[in-house]
# Entry
Amino acid sequence: MSAQSAEQLLHLETLSETERKILLGALHCFIQQGYFNTRIPDIVAASGVSTGSIYHHFKDKQHLAEALITQLINGLDQAMAKLISQHETPMEQIHALIEWMLTLTDAEPELVSFILYARHREFLPHQPPLCTQQPFEKMRSLVVRARENGDLPPLDEMVLTAAVFGPTLRIMQAAVDGVLPRPAHTYSAALFATIERLSTASAEV
Amino acid sequence: MSAQSAEQLLHLETLSETERKILLGALHCFIQQGYFNTRIPDIVAASGVSTGSIYHHFKDKQHLAEALITQLINGLDQAMAKLISQHETPMEQIHALIEWMLTLTDAEPELVSFILYARHREFLPHQPPLCTQQPFEKMRSLVVRARENGDLPPLDEMVLTAAVFGPTLRIMQAAVDGVLPRPAHTYSAALFATIERLSTASAEV
DNA sequence: GTCTATATGTTGATAGAC
DNA sequence: GTCTATCAACATATAGAC
# Structure
């Protein structure tokens, strides 16, 4: 699957044109400056929608952010579900997912930075941590099924998920921090090699 | 090495008593509520130092935070250097470092959360990203030396660092997010197993 | 539903006594 | 160096016309 834009990841079809404009403007502001550095007038400028209209559609700044995060998580979840459905075995699905994560990082580094770093709980205290939500649950279930298939060793489920997806997430983080010499997706082969090695290691360790 | 408290990690010996109290108070506030949710009166209450005195010692809130982050990074760096110096081979040093990271996570989860999640650039735009600083540089150099020793496979340096430390960092993140069933340090053996497998995998992959 | 203009409340920072 | 009291600026949220 090719990389998607931030707009495509927010599935905004059910919303009114104004709400779409507000959420996209807010997303751009939050991505670039962070939630706390974003002032309502910034969202007004970015969205082309007036203060009054923003407050007509959203109770306050916090609820606006909440709606945005919800849409984003749902969008990620749907994109991942579609991607997974296009492949057969758990290991193929894992590979496809990693390719997609790396490609998305190259295409939308600031969006990825927002997702990876975001301490959403700092501005949304009621939000559960990202890693307990659908996208990370999907990763875990893929790993568990690969383990059942015998494609991954019989290690603890949390550790195995961390070992399969942790390196990719670190590379993504390095990429968005600007300390990666090459585009993120060029590391996919080496990352797959580390996963291969998890499975094929000699048993007597 | 046993776990250290937040206070021990900030090497504050060279500072005046008042500056120490201010930095520790601020650290507790930032850890618990984040930088933007912390008001000056919160730091006054947490440190027992008055507003005027705080502004006598630090130009403004941002410079206070900057001083704190610098101290914290230096403290981490020193603790890691000491730990590394107590072991011989790169692989032993890597193992010791991972044990220490996990133990610190159990002892000071909120401090670790602050370090891991902190988008310090959101409130300190001039700060380089954490992963380019001494602590992460140390991780990379350990991995490179282990690779030279033949203890790790000849993969890309960034990928190898991500493969060695990424899983541990993911487990730490899961721990501070409260989604880890057992204390973080109980996963060390399984984490070491994943690193072992990197090295001992059959060559013809 | 959308807009402009404005009020309300907070907050970072300062002034000035001790 | 430390403190209390206060200011000035600003950002959120609202009021009310269209």
